[in-house]
Design a protein that fits this description.
The chain is mainly α. The protein is built from 12 helices and no strands.
Length: 286
């Protein structure tokens, strides 16, 4: 129960700090249309990652086994990454060294893919959930890379565009895989097609998975084709936020005494934040 309180407390604190900074800067008044939603990208990315950072401390005994066996000092790296998650999240929402934090998040999640998720998937190639988890971490890396590219004013336009293009593929490929999985397995949760089956008491439980899959197909193809990328990423993120409200918030309320509900809610919100970060790095269409 302590782990649950810490997760929700840090999540809420970072969310509140991010919104307060956003209001103080007056960015709301300058944004128009769907661009208003893009302002929430760093907050939606940072609040969950800070909460996940607390779990490195409160659930250390069960999480330490996730560190590859050949890396020395398992417990040190677990605590180190947890502390960095919290510090980096505060950096993103306050704008203090945000470019550095975004770059390190991109590198960290890419290392997670290379060192843990991809090898695990390689041992179970027929496990679609292992594939979904690997591509989720890749999306988290791509979203942070897109933010780093958009904040890197010292680079030439070509360099920023190259980073943004890599980020676009890191998000676009998982989107199409998720679209395929959601249209095939509508009884599983929408957004990120993981093992959890959508509870039957969720209103329209299968509809939300079909809905997300349909949007992912169209918008994902636009992303990979490099056409209307800003609008495509924004609509994907908006879809994630809709299913967040329709499915994951009620589920988190029902499972409020455990981390299961919170982790699904925060995980999906972070995915939506990553896609919003990509949208913010894409060029504006006429």
């Amino acid at each position: 129960m302590i782990a649950v309180w810490w997760a929700y407390g840090v999540f809420g604190a970072v969310l509140a700090i991010g919104l307060a900074v956003l209001v103080r800067r007056g960015d709301w008044q300058q944004a128009q249309g769907l661009d208003t939603l893009l302002l929430l990208g760093p907050i939606f990315y940072a609040a969950p990652v800070a909460a996940f950072g607390t779990e490195h401390f409160t659930l250390s005994s069960s999480m330490v086994s996730m560190v590859p066996h050949w890396i020395p000092g398992h417990l040190f790296w677990l605590y180190f990454v947890g502390g960095c998650f919290i510090a980096g999240a505060l950096s993103l929402v306050t704008g203090i060294q945000a470019r550095l934090a975004a770059s390190l998040f991109a590198l960290t999640f890419f290392l997670f893919v290379v060192l843990m998720d991809a090898p695990g998937w390689a041992h179970h190639l027929d496990n679609r959930f292992a594939a979904a988890l690997t591509l989720r971490e890749l999306s988290f890396s791509g979203g942070a890379l897109a933010l780093a590219a958009s904040l890197n004013g010292a680079w030439r336009d070509r360099g920023r565009r190259a980073l943004a293009t890599v980020a676009r593929y890191c998000v676009g490929v998982p989107v199409l895989f998720y679209a395929f999985e959601q249209l095939r397995h509508a009884h599983h949760v929408p957004g990120i097609p993981l093992e959890l089956v959508t509870p039957v008491w969720i209103v329209g439980h299968a509809f939300w998975t079909y809905f997300a899959g349909a949007v992912y197909v169209v918008a994902g193809l636009y992303l990979l084709a490099g056409r209307k990328t800003r609008a495509a990423a924004t609509w994907i993120a908006a879809t994630v936020l809709v299913v967040e409200l329709a499915v994951y918030v009620p589920f988190a309320v029902a499972e409020r005494a455990s981390l299961v509900g919170f982790n699904y809610l925060a995980d999906t919100l972070m995915y939506g934040g990553a896609v919003l970060l990509l949208a913010g790095a894409m060029p504006r269409e006429e």
